C-alpha cells in the first residue's frame, strides 16, 4: 500500500528539477522573461554578461532556468551549458527584422548540437505588444520552422513585460517533460 501511495505522490508531485537553457540574441527580452516567470513581475534589467540562473516553479514542477547572454561574443559559449538540458527556450525579438537571419543561424546551430538531439525547443516570439512586431506566421517562415523534423518545437507569441504568453509556453514545456517522465 505504501509503495502505491509513494508512486501516486511522485506522479502528482515530482521532485525532479528540470534544466532549461534560455538563449537568444541580445536585447530579445530573455532576462525580462526569466524574472517575470520567477518573480511574477517585470524588473529593470541590464544586458546579461555571462548568465543568470533562477528556479521557476510551475505546475508542481521545478525548473532551473539558465538565461545566457546573447551578444555575438558570448554565443559560442552557449554550448557549454547544453549538457543535461531538458528543453531550450529561444527568445526572439519580434520587431528585429534586421537580425532574424542571425537568429535562424543560431537556431540551426542549436538543432545540430549533439547534446540536444531529442530535446524540445520553445520559441518565444517576444514583444508582440509592439505594432511593428512580426506575426508568428512570419517568424515561422523566416526561421523555416516547418523544416524541423527531428525536434519537437512550439512557437509562442508573448510579451515578457506583461507576461502574456509566457505561461502558455511553460505549459508546453511542462507537457513535454511530463511525457518524458511517464
TrEMBL record:
Keywords, A to Z, come to:
ER-Golgi transport, GTP-binding, Lipoprotein, Magnesium, Metal-binding, Myristate, Nucleotide-binding, Transport
Which residues are involved in binding GTP? 24-31, 70, 126-129
Q: Which N-terminal stretch is annotated as signal sequence?
A: none
Gene3D superfamilies the UniProt entry points to: P-loop containing nucleotide triphosphate hydrolases
One term of GO molecular function: metal ion binding
| Residue sites binding Mg(2+) per the record | 31, 48
Which InterPro entries is this protein grouped with?
Answer: P-loop_NTPase (IPR027417), Small_GTP-bd (IPR005225), Small_GTPase_ARF (IPR024156), Small_GTPase_ARF/SAR (IPR006689)
Can the keyword Lipoprotein be found in this entry's annotation? yes
Question: Which one GO biological process term can you cite for this protein?
Answer: vesicle-mediated transport
The UniProt similarity line reads: Belongs to the small GTPase superfamily. Arf family.
List, alphabetically, the NCBIfam families matched.
small_GTP (TIGR00231)
Q: What is this protein called?
A: Uncharacterized protein
Report the source organism. Symbiochloris irregularis
Amino acid at each position: 500500500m505504501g509503495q502505491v501511495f509513494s508512486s501516486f505522490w511522485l506522479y502528482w508531485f515530482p521532485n525532479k528539477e528540470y534544466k532549461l537553457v534560455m538563449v537568444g540574441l541580445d536585447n530579445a527580452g530573455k532576462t525580462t522573461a526569466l524574472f517575470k516567470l520567477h518573480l511574477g513581475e517585470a524588473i529593470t534589467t541590464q544586458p546579461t554578461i555571462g548568465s543568470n540562473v533562477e528556479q521557476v516553479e510551475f505546475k508542481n514542477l521545478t525548473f532551473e532556468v539558465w538565461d545566457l547572454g546573447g551578444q555575438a561574443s558570448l554565443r559560442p559559449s552557449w554550448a557549454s551549458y547544453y549538457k543535461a538540458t531538458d528543453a531550450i527556450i529561444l527568445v526572439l525579438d519580434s520587431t528585429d527584422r534586421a537580425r532574424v537571419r542571425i537568429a535562424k543561424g543560431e537556431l540551426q546551430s542549436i538543432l545540430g548540437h549533439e547534446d540536444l538531439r531529442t530535446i524540445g525547443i520553445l520559441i518565444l516570439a517576444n514583444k508582440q505588444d509592439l505594432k511593428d512586431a512580426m506575426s508568428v506566421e512570419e517568424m515561422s517562415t523566416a526561421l523555416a520552422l516547418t523544416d524541423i523534423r527531428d525536434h519537437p518545437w512550439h512557437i509562442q507569441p508573448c510579451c515578457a513585460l506583461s507576461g502574456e504568453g509566457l505561461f502558455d509556453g511553460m505549459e508546453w514545456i511542462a507537457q513535454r517533460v511530463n511525457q518524458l517522465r511517464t
